[in-house]
Automatic annotation (TrEMBL):
Name this protein carries in UniProt: UDP-glucose 6-dehydrogenase
Keywords in alphabetical order: NAD, Oxidoreductase
Species whose genome carries this gene: Aquaticitalea lipolytica
Source domain of life: Bacteria
Binding site for NAD(+): 10-15, 35, 40, 91-95, 132-133, 166, 277-280, 347
Binding-site list for substrate: 162-166, 221-225, 261, 268-274, 339-340, 443
Record field: catalytic activity: UDP-alpha-D-glucose + 2 NAD(+) + H2O = UDP-alpha-D-glucuronate + 2 NADH + 3 H(+)
C-alpha cells in the first residue's frame, strides 16, 4: 500500500524545506507540516514569500508551487497525526541544560512528547520516521513509548536522517548525495522501509538510496557531522600555524585538497564553525562514548570542539591586541551574524561569541547581516546572560545598511562569508572610517591587495604576513 498522507511534526529548518520538496516531487501525497509554535506556522502560511520563517535560496518557489495543493502548514497537531499513514518527527533535540548529561547529551524531551502524542492519537497502524538527529538507539526508546502507551495499533520506526546543509538545502534535497533509511530487519520493518524508498524514488535515483539497520542509520548521521566538523577544526588548527610561519591557509588547503584521498571540499579556514548540528552532535557523540566507558574516543572527538572554541577566542583576542590592546569605546563593525552565508540561522554562530568577547572589553559593536533580524541578534546575546539586555542594546547596534555599520568604525570584522561583502565599494568604506582602518577577515573572502592599496591594515584568518 502506498503512502497517501504524511504528517511532519516540527516546521523548522529541517522539517519545512524537507517536506516542501517531498510535496513538490510527490503531488499524489498530501503533506501536512505541524508545529506547536503558532507564529511559525502563520509565517509558513504567509502570502509574502519573502517572510517565510526559514530563508533558503529557491525555497519560496517550491512553497509557491505546492502550498495549498498538497502541502499544508497547520498547528492542529493531533488532527494531522490522526490522518497520516507516515509521521516524520523533525523536532529540535538541543543539548541538555540540566541534570545528567548537562552540556553534552541530547535533550530528548521534545521527541518523547511527540512519541506520547502519536501513541495517544493513533487509531490505525503508522510508520514513524526519525528525521531529527538522534543518539544511537533512540528508536528503541520511541518504540517503547509507542508500544506501551498506544491504543494497540502497530508502529514501525524508521531512521531517515537529513543531511541537508543550510543555505543549500533545496539543492541538497533535490539532488542528495544519498538518502539513508534504517529499518528493522523484520518483514513489517522492511515493508515500511520500502514504502519510504518508494517516496524518495520519485526523484532520487535508486542507487543513491541506501538502506541499513536502524542503529547504523542513527550513528551514520552523528558520524558524518563529526567528520565534517573535524575537517573544519583541522584546517583551523593549521590556520594558526600558518599565521605564525608565513604560510597561507588557502594555498595549503588547495595543495592538500588536490590529493584525491583528501578532496577539496570543507577545507575553508574560518572564525569557527557554527550551526545547530556540529557542536551538538559531537557533544552527543562524546557523551555516548563516555557512557560506554570509551574515554579515549570521547577525548578524541571533544578536541574538535575545544579547537573550535579556541578559534573564536583567538579571533577576538587578535582584534583587541591589534587595536593597541584596547577596544574600549571603539566602534567595531561586524559584517555578518549568520553562522554561514545564505541562511538567516544564527544558532551557535561564531559571531555571537566574538561579539560577546568584544562587548566584555567594552567595544561598541555595530552589526550588519543581510538576512538576520535585529531581534534575533539581541536574543542571541541575551541567551548568553553575560550582561543585561539593556547593556547589550547600549553597546551593540544593528544596522540595515553595511556602509552605515562601518561608518566611523576603527575596525571591520568579517564573520559570515556573504557574497555581497566582496563587491562593496571598499574605498568609500575606508574613507568613512577612523584611521588606521583595520579589517579582520574571519572568512578569508576579501581581496588583500585591493584593500591594502586602499590603505587598510588587512588581517586574514590563516595568513600571517
Ligand atoms: C551541517 C552538515 O553539513 C549537514 O550535512 C547536516 O545535515 C547539518 O549540519 P550546516 O550546519 O547547515 O550543515 O552547514 P555546513 O555547511 O556544514 O557548515 C557548518 C559550519 O562550518 C558553518 O559555520 C560553516 O561556515 C563552517 N565551515 C564549513 C567552515 O568553517 N569551513 C568549511 O570549509 C566548511
Ligand atoms: P531543526 O533545525 O532541527 O529543524 P528547529 O528548532 O528549527 O530545528 O525546528 C524544530 C521545530 O519543532 C520548532 O519549530 C518547534 O516548535 C517544533 N516542536 C518541538 N516540539 C514539538 C511538538 N511536541 N509538537 C510540534 N512541534 C514541536
Amino acid at each position: 500500500m502506498s503512502i497517501k498522507n504524511i504528517c511532519c511534526i516540527g516546521a523548522g529548518y529541517v522539517g519545512g524545506p524537507t517536506m516542501a520538496v517531498i510535496a513538490q516531487k510527490c503531488p499524489h501525497i498530501n503533506v501536512t507540516v505541524v508545529d506547536i509554535n503558532k507564529e511559525r506556522i502563520a509565517a509558513w502560511n504567509n502570502d509574502d514569500l519573502s517572510s517565510l520563517p526559514v530563508f533558503e535560496p529557491g525555497l519560496d518557489l517550491i512553497i509557491k508551487e505546492a502550498r495549498g495543493r498538497n502541502l499544508f502548514f497547520s498547528s492542529n497537531v493531533e488532527e494531522s497525526i490522526d490522518k497520516a499513514d507516515m509521521i516524520f518527527i523533525s523536532v529540535n533535540t538541543p543539548t541538555k541544560t540540566y541534570g545528567k548529561g548537562k552540556g553534552m547529551a541530547a535533550d530528548l524531551k521534545y521527541i518523547e512528547l511527540c512519541a506520547r502524542q502519536i501513541a495517544s492519537v493513533s487509531k490505525n497502524n503508522k510508520i514513524v520516521v526519525e528525521k531529527s538527529t538522534l543518539p544511537v538507539r533512540t528508536a528503541s526508546a520511541i518504540k517503547n513509548i509507542l508500544d506501551n502507551t498506544g491504543n494497540g495499533v502497530q508502529f514501525q520506526i524508521l531512521s531517515n536522517p537529513e543531511f541537508l546543509a543550510e543555505g543549500t538545502a533545496v539543492n541538497d534535497l533535490l539532488m542528495p548525495d544519498r538518502v539513508l533509511i534504517g529499518g528493522d530487519n523484520t518483514k513489517e520493518g522492511q515493508k515500511a522501509v520500502n514504502q519510504l524508498v518508494e517516496i524518495y524514488s520519485n526523484w532520487v535515483p535508486k542507487n543513491k538510496i541506501l538502506t541499513t539497520n536502524v542503529w547504523s542509520s542513527e550513528l551514520s548521521k552523528l558520524t558524518a557531522n563529526a567528520f565534517l566538523a573535524q575537517r573544519v577544526s583541522s584546517i583551523n588548527a593549521m590556520s594558526e600555524i600558518c599565521e605564525k610561519t608565513g604560510a597561507d591557509i588557502n594555498e595549503v588547503a588547495q595543495a592538500i585538497g588536490m590529493d584525491s584521498r583528501i578532496g577539496p571540499k570543507f577545507l575553508k579556514a574560518s572564525v569557527g564553525f557554527g550551526g545547530s548540528c556540529f557542536q551538538k552532535d559531537i557533544l552527543n557523540l562524546v557523551y555516548i562514548a563516555k557512557s560506554y566507558g570509551l574515554d579515549e574516543v570521547a577525548d578524541y572527538w571533544e578536541q574538535v570542539i575545544i579547537m573550535n572554541e579556541h578559534q573564536k577566542q583567538r579571533f577576538s583576542d587578535n582584534i583587541v591586541q591589534t587595536l593597541f590592546n584596547t577596544v574600549s569605546g571603539k566602534k567595531i563593525a561586524f559584517l555578518g551574524w549568520a553562522f554561514k552565508k545564505d541562511t538567516n540561522d544564527t544558532r551557535e554562530s561564531a559571531a555571537i561569541k566574538v561579539a560577546d568577547n568584544l562587548l566584555s572589553e567594552r567595544a561598541l559593536v555595530s552589526v550588519y547581516d543581510p538576512k538576520v533580524k535585529k531581534e534575533r541578534i539581541y536574543a542571541d546575546l541575551e541567551n548568553l546572560k553575560t550582561r543585561s539586555d539593556e547593556e547589550n542594546k547600549t553597546l551593540l547596534k544593528v544596522h540595515t545598511n553595511a556602509y552605515e555599520a562601518c561608518k566611523d568604525s576603527h575596525a571591520i570584522a568579517v564573520l559570515t562569508e556573504w557574497d555581497e561583502f566582496v563587491n562593496y565599494d571598499w574605498a568609500k568604506i575606508h574613507k568613512a572610517m577612523q584611521k588606521p582602518a583595520f579589517i579582520f577577515d574571519g572568512r578569508g573572502i576579501l581581496n588583500k591587495d585591493l584593500l591594502e592599496n586602499i590603505g587598510f591594515s588587512y588581517y586574514k584568518i590563516g595568513s600571517g604576513y
